[in-house]
Amino acid sequence: MILIVMAGGARASVPDTLVFAGDDHYPPFQWRSADGHVHGFVEDLEQALAEQGGRKAEHRLMDWPQALADLQSGKVDVVAMFASRERGQRFLFTTPFYFVTHGIYGHNGHAGVAGPEELAGHRVALEEGGYAAEALKEHHIQVQPVYREDYAAAMDAVLGGYAEYALLPQTVTNRRIMKKKLPLQPLGPPLWPRAYVFAVSSNNPQLHDWLQTQLGLVVSSGRYYDIYQQWRPQIEWASASFWQRYRWLLWTLAALALLMLLGYGYSWQLRRVVRNRTGQLQAALSRQRKAEKEVRYWLNHDRLTGLPTRGEFVKQVRRYLGKRGRAGHTYVVMVIHLSDINDIVCSLSYETGEAMVAAVARRLQQQRFKALGYFGRGVFGVLAEADASRQHSLLDESALELEGVELEPHFGVGLARYPQHSRDVIELLRQAEIALATGAHRQRYWAEYRPSMDPDPNNLFILRDFRRSGSDGLSVCVQPQVDLASGAIVGGEVLVRWQHPSLGALSPAYFVPLLEQAGLVGQLTEYVLDQAVQLAVQLRDEGRPTRMSVNVSAVDILESDLFHIVMSVLEKHGGLAEDLRLEMTETCVIGDPQRASEVVSRLSARGVACSIDDFGVGFSSMSHLRQFAVSEVKIDRSFVHDMCREESHYAIVKAVVALAHELSLTVVAEGPEDMETVQALQALCCDRAQGYVFSRPLSVEDFRAQRGKGFLHRDGRERA
Description:
With 720 residues, this protein is α/β, with parallel strands linked by helices. It is built from 25 helices and 32 strands. Helix 1 packs antiparallel against helix 8 and helix 12 runs antiparallel to helix 13. It is elongated, with a radius of gyration of 42 Å. The chain starts with a strand and ends in a 14-residue tail after the last helix. 33% of the residues are buried.
């Protein structure tokens, strides 16, 4: 298979070997001789088309109905046929390469027929799948059809008395009548002059375009006329005439006249042929050069906006900077994104989105930048002088009237400076795109590249290795949760760790956000849930039931079937609902509060406790306590660890404890690091605490060993 590029930049495929099909008994256009070889005017022309386009040709001749069926099913690539309206609904046609008429045939001496209307009600022999049957139907002429597999069999039907008339193509029929001396004759004038064309499946417009191009080149090069002249004696077949019977006498007389005119006539004709052929070649070369120039232009320019594509934009910027960039001037490369283009396409239509892009392109062209390109999907590239980057007004955001609707374009801009950031155009574009993405993430309209924006290249390797290894290298540890009234360990938060094969121990704060962004965090969550339930079941079997807490992300809640995942893990290990608590941050539920509320409600209804983690640092915290079926809040460590030194943080902790108790919720303080903070939490009647003052995260074995010891005396003093 060879790939070619059509106008507009679309990639299309044309097979290395083209399969041509046709009627196996249709001389002189195409037929198979007794020795199995394929012959005919059409076969020679098909071979020329394939050679012109650098392809091989394979010729398959068969019954005509089968040829049509194979073309429609895709078993063959090209079939030569008469063009018709009905066939045009199924196939794509090239320009005609010959014209053929039909005729009405009957026995010698039969009365003439003025037109096909007089055939109504009569028995008429027709080629199965041929054009004549379509024409009769199109002209609403009702006959008694006698279908045969080809034109020769249709003629035999008349000779055998099965039909009164035959309606057939004249070229092949006249040839057979004369060659076989059949007692048949045309009974009326020629009918329905039809174009003889090459047809391809309507599902393959790329092949049609290629075939059309090769046919034009074969004609313009003169090769078509050479082939036609070779077959002309058989295509324009005629009966024996006076000239043929007495050509030996007439030839002598004609030779004398020919000798007289030879001197003048030969010279004049030769000059005329050379002049005509030269004109044809010059015209063909001119058309070819024009077509090639147009193809090259649209390979490098966007058809919608007329602007250079990314590759051409890079070339233009390099040329410009190569001439001007060394003179001490500074420039900026900007990537401008029409930020609401996707919303316009989804809300209105694709056509409206295209109209918006074209209108914005016209506005940008009015700014007369040093270079301007369009990269697709609403993204433009710009080269401007450094001072222009300070003129934010260069992006006109006034309303545009599109399809009768007024719409205001909105942009995001990322820029990088030449030569400050780089002298390489590709690198400047990369830096500008990084700035654009960073600005969009931070909800900033205009962002300039900073080296700190570059992503860590290790991120790609971490994601690759996680996809490959799955849970290999993962482990969990547990940080105890202590009841502040009794000093006993009543729960634990299960935390994941990853020992990377080459980077060593990775912090969850580093790799968990990467997995969330890549959509892989669900696999991680399932692993931690599995480990947490196993540990809870072991502790319960030892007579020390302990509820294990597991963090879940927004992806887990909103994009996976978290309920069934949790139920499956509990069933797998024989765990109970009270063995598990799911901790979710407030930011997890902001995207789709209704969906998150449904998931939490289903889990709570089955006895799985849910907790809001990092309480106080998200949005609408109080509304979440009311909206979601949670049984616990964890006060964020940013308020807890210094509450004895910061009055405002102490007040926040005090208020949260009081509010949560009013709502019958358990309160866990996260992050106490000294006994003074613990005693302050006890004084506020906080229920539980989790922090370094008691323990750093422990291995599973150490946590099981510590489970029965506890950490506090009842008076709040730390146990020895």
